């Protein structure tokens, strides 16, 4: 959907391929399946009964067995493909907790994340929620909010890029569900694996931090379609066509902070903008198919630009119809968000959809948990959102309800925890 930003983000069509993952059956999974029994089927294909003796362990499917590495150059959960289940959580340090307590917390969190991502129990008090599952592409990502640095006496280490986002006219923000000292992103291709990680992270916070807000999301499960394809959002639009790709020569420059960065603790890190964007689905679904496509600027069926071609065909912004009108409307979302219409501004969008129930009037509380990554939000998210604020056709069908900006340091090296260079530097 979105070309280079916004609310409705475009995710790379090959997003389901885990470029930083590896297949393998975890120790926990092998233990969980070691005593499995086989189901005997009768000649007619019905269930005749259970086998009397234990059968050989059944190997995990590719969904369950895929493992993402914790100790990597960039934290996991940034360039990995969309996951079926996600939890976004912000924490505030408790009164009296400072730099020392924050360091101990990040050390605990990092070890728990490493263990769970490898498919191991979280520790001695593991809840066994995910006992029978493999890693399921679990990723756990940690970031720091603007307020974290004053709470820990590290104001001099706060990056300029972490300055608060400007106000946008379309914002209807709930401050209680915005910002936070610390941010954790959890994603997995199994809901129980994701919940298990969420519970472990929350328990690890102990007396050092309390939950400020939590949001739960989902995506299509990898393998649910006959072949890999761009995911759809809750408006039914293909959502991810023009996301930056790691194969592009300037990808790292756009998405990651360089190794020579100041402050140095942010080297190889990135900045995450997090927005809860409610979709006004009742209003959207009243539009005809043609009207919906005019709002977006792309065909709903296959994601092709209204100017023609396939999903990946470059959009012709000058093409007109027989009446001389632009084929892609001037206020179409896909036109406004194109990088070449925004001075090259780009970000890597990696969202989750959400549905938090139906109100008394039958209106769904649903939409997009928008997460985008960039080397500098002042050159990525901000200029594009400002332009959207001035006349995006999609704006009347969405509402920005919460917002946060977080500095996400580079990945932890072997023997380190995330944020160690900041907290012990």
Automatic annotation (TrEMBL):
Catalysed reaction equations from the record: heme b + 2 H(+) = protoporphyrin IX + Fe(2+)
Region (Disordered): 1-27
Needed co-factor(s): heme b
Keyword Iron: yes
Residue stretches making up the Dyp-type peroxidase C-terminal domain: 230-412
Domain Dyp-type peroxidase N-terminal: 75-219
GO biological processes: iron import into cell
Recorded superkingdom: Bacteria
Cellular location(s): Cell envelope
Key words, A-Z: Heme, Iron, Lyase, Metal-binding, Oxidoreductase, Peroxidase, Signal
EC number, UniProt record: 1.11.1.-
Chief site of localization: other
NCBIfam families hit by this protein: Dyp_perox_fam (TIGR01413), tat_substr_1 (TIGR01412)
Family note: Belongs to the DyP-type peroxidase family.
Function: Involved in the recovery of exogenous heme iron. Extracts iron from heme while preserving the protoporphyrin ring intact.
Name of the protein this chain belongs to: Deferrochelatase
């Amino acid at each position: 959907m979105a070309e280079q930003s916004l609310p409705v983000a475009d995710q790379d069509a090959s997003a389901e391929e885990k470029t930083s993952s590896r297949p393998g059956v975890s120790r926990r999974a092998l233990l969980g399946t070691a005593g499995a029994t086989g189901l005997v089927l009768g000649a007619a294909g019905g269930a005749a009964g259970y086998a009397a003796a234990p059968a050989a362990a059944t190997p995990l499917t590719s969904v369950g067995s895929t493992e993402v590495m914790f100790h990597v150059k960039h934290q996991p959960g940034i360039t990995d493909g969309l996951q079926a289940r996600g939890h976004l959580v912000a924490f505030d340090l408790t009164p009296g907790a400072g730099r020392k307590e924050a360091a101990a917390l990040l050390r605990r969190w990092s070890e728990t994340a490493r263990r769970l991502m490898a498919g191991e129990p979280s520790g001695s008090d593991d809840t066994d929620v995910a006992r029978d599952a493999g890693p399921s592409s679990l990723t756990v990502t940690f970031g720091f909010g603007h307020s974290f640095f004053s709470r820990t006496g590290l104001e001099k280490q706060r990056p300029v890029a972490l300055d608060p986002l400007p106000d946008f006219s379309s914002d209807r923000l709930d401050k209680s569900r915005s910002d936070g000292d610390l941010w954790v992103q959890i994603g997995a291709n199994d809901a129980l694996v994701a919940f298990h990680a969420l519970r472990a992270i929350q328990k690890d916070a102990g007396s050092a931090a309390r939950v400020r807000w939590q949001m739960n999301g989902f995506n299509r499960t990898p393998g649910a379609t006959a072949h890999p394809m761009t995911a759809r959002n809750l408006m039914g639009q293909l959502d991810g066509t023009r996301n930056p790709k790691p194969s592009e020569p300037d990808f790292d420059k756009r998405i990651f902070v360089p190794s020579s960065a100041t402050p140095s603790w942010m080297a190889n890190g990135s900045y995450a903008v997090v927005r809860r964007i409610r979709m006004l689905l009742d209003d959207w679904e009243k539009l005809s198919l043609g009207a919906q496509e005019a709002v977006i600027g792309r065909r709903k069926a296959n994601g092709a630009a209204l100017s023609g071609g396939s999903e990946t065909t470059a959009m012709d912004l000058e093409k007109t119809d027989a009446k001389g009108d632009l084929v892609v409307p001037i206020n179409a979302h896909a036109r406004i968000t194109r990088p070449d219409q925004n001075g090259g501004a780009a970000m890597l969008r990696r969202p989750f959809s959400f549905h938090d129930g139906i109100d008394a009037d039958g209106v769904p509380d649903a939409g997009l948990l928008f997460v985008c990554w960039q080397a500098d939000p002042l050159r990525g998210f901000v200029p594009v959102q400002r332009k959207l604020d001035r006349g995006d056709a999609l704006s009347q069908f969405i509402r920005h309800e919460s917002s946060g900006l977080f500095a996400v340091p580079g990945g932890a090296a072997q023997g380190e925890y995330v944020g160690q260079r900041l907290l012990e530097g």
